[in-house]
Each structure stands twice: as C-alpha cells, then as structure tokens.
Design a protein that fits this description.
alpha/beta; Aspartate Aminotransferase, domain 2; Aspartate Aminotransferase, domain 1; seven-stranded mixed β-sheet; five-stranded mixed β-sheet; 13 helices; 15% strand
C-alpha cells in the first residue's frame, strides 16, 4: 500500500460497531474489567488508550517499525528515551540539534550521570574518534536544526553496528513520508509530532518508533512508569493531521523551492541553507536517503537590523516558535529555539543575530514571495 494511502487509513483497526469513519475519542482515564483476571486489553489510559493505540499503530506502519509510542511532547519522548541509559554512559550527538535537545542533554541528562560529546555528523568520520568503551548511542538530526546539515544515515548506522551502539535519528523535519531512518539502519526514530505530523499548530505530541521488540519492551516499561503519554484528544488531532501529511508536504516543499530560489537573488540575503539547493554540500546524500528535501530552510541576512526589520514587517508570515503547520512561520533561533545554547557555541555554528529560520506553510507561493519582498524592502 502506498504511504499516501496509509496516511489516510492508518492502522485500519476499529474499536466500535458504529461504522464511524473518524476514529472515536475514548476520553476515559480507566476501563472496567469484564471479570477477575480479565481485561478488554485496556486498563488505564497511562498504559494505553484506544485512540492513542490507533495513532501509534498508524505511525508504526508509516515508519515500518515494530512499535511506536506517543508522548505528550517531542521533548517528553527524548526525555523518556534517555532513561534507556545509566550513569556513566556516553552518547555522541550531532552538534547542530534542536536547542531543546541540547538543553536536556547539557542540563538534565548530564546531571543524571550521562556524558555527551558533540560532532558535526554531516562529516560522519568525525564520530569515530569520540567513541569510547562507555559510548552507548549516537543521536543525530537530519536535516539539522537550524543549519540544515545532512547526515548519511546508512553510514552512521554502519559505524554504530560495528561498535554495538544505538543509532537514534530525529526525523521531525522530513517525517516518514519523505525519509524512513529505520530502513536505513537506525534503531530509534524521534519525532516532535507537534510539527508536520499533526500539522496545524494546534496540539503538542511526540513519538518514538523502534526497530526491535527488545527496545519496544524496554521503552514501554519506561513509558508506563514515567507517565508522559499522549492524551486521547491530542491523539485524535494528530490522527487527523496525518491524513493530509502527504499532500501538505508535497505542496510545502514545492513552495519552499520557489522561495529559496527567489531569496538567493536578493541583495540583503548573504546565504540560504536548504538541502534542495544545488550548492548544498550534502545534496547527494539527501537524494540517496530521502524522497524530498522538506519545507524548512534558514537564511542569513546582511545585518541584525535587517533581521529585526524582517521579523517585524511581515503581513502574512508569522513570527513564532514552531514549524510544520499550515501557516508559514519565521523564527529567530538565537532568541528562541537556541536561546539556552551558550553564545560562543551558537556563533561557532552560525546561529547568530543575522540567522532566520523559515517554515513554509500552505499559503500561495507568490503571496509569500510578495510578503518577503515587502519585508526586505
């Protein structure tokens, strides 16, 4: 079955006899037992809920994994994932990650005894010198946030398999519609479901999708214990969003290509970061491991004053911290997504007061170009 059809029809599992086309919202905290030692398969919504189970099975099908777990947010998913590891364990992470992941690793996970090293994983050879006897996993995001670096997932998987490490891939920007890390050798895929999967800027969600039953069992135990599960209504909103994932992403990435092509010609734009541009250093890797370039890009303007003027001059695009919804959003990473990353580190990565990140929505492409044009004028 084509993935577009899978997005619409989900797991095909039904939980009632009404013939409802929309999956019911089982807004129940607990479920009655038919008898002593008997269960309907649902006992308490922290463990599982029929609406959430339908969503999890849908995402598991899309990513071709063995299990998927739905969390209250993307960061709740990453936090639970860190519970796989013990004090003294070492994790190698991409240096250009979502700022919230950096904040978790550097301020919470480190406090709990984990150690982290950072590498530019777009040069996968840079990972090798960092591997020690205590290393347990490699955590990458591709394309990365916000510099749009691309990591070769299959090459990373080969290194991890050689050294018996878990490979964790944050696939938020592309979703399983455009990229399937598990098929390329990853062990765990992470999503902020708030973004493209839900797609309407109206709910928070997070996911872990795993390749093996052993990982699924370990994470299910953590899941029910820490209790950061996705609520029934938010599960339903995300199910609704996934139904249009394919058509949204197709349209959004078409518009993104038009916008970055136009931006490259503008006098106040110093550089555009987008994996679909011919001059992107890892474009060939993207062509090999994904079926599209996505709809996220960043660009650097000539000065901080220009950046501020753009942010305050839009008429259609909205200055807000998120991405992947039907509305186009622009973000100032140094003040928003990466505000907790030390300034020296931000500057070294290019996350400075001239860098802006753009999430392309479903507006008309020419309207967005016109809006950018007047904001740059």
């Amino acid at each position: 079955m084509d993935i577009t059809t899978c997005c619409i029809h989900g797991s095909r599992k039904t939980y009632d006899r009404t013939g409802a086309i929309s999956v019911p919202i089982f807004q129940s905290a607990t479920f009655a037992h038919p008898g002593v030692g008997e269960s309907t398969g649902f006992d308490y919504s922290r463990l599982q809920n029929p609406t959430r189970e339908y969503l999890e099975q849908t995402l598991c099908t899309l990513d071709e994994g063995v299990d998927a777990l739905a969390f209250s947010t993307g960061m709740a998913a990453v936090t639970a994932l860190m519970e796989l590891f013990s004090p003294g364990d070492h994790i190698i992470a991409g240096e250009d990650l979502y700022g919230g992941s950096h904040r978790l690793f550097d301020h919470i996970s480190t406090k709990n005894g984990l150690a982290f090293s950072y590498a530019d994983t777009s040069d996968i050879a840079s990972v090798l010198p960092l591997i020690t006897e205590h290393t347990r996993a490699v955590f990458i995001e591709t394309p990365s946030n916000p510099m749009m670096r691309v990591t070769d997932i299959a090459a990373a998987a080969a290194i991890c398999q050689m050294h018996h490490l878990l490979l964790i891939v944050d696939n938020t920007f592309l979703t399983p519609y455009l990229q399937k890390p598990l098929l390329l050798g990853a062990d765990v895929v992470v999503y902020s479901g708030t973004k493209y999967l839900a797609g309407h800027n109206d709910t928070l969600a997070g996911f872990l999708v795993v390749k093996t039953p052993e990982l699924a069992e370990r994470l299910r135990f953590i899941y029910k214990t820490v209790g950061s599960c996705l609520a029934p209504f938010d599960s339903w909103l995300t199910i609704r969003g996934i139904k249009t994932l394919a058509v949204r992403l197709d349209r959004q990435q078409q518009t993104a290509m038009k916008l970055v092509t136009w931006l490259e010609q503008q006098p106040h734009i110093d550089r555009v970061y987008f994996a679909g541009l011919p001059n992107h250093p890892q474009r060939d890797i993207m062509l090999r491991q994904s079926r599209g370039f996505g709809a996220m890009f960043s660009f650097q303007v000539d000065c901080a004053e220009t950046a501020h003027k753009i942010l305050e001059s839009f008429k259609i695009v909205q200055y807000a911290e998120s991405l992947g919804g039907v509305e186009s959003l622009i973000t100032y990473p140094m003040l928003q997504t990466h505000a907790d990353v030390p300034m020296e580190e931000r500057e070294r990565k290019g996350i400075n007061d001239r860098l802006l990140r753009f999430s392309v929505g479903l507006e008309d492409a020419q309207d967005l170009i016109d809006d950018l044009s007047q904001a740059l004028a």
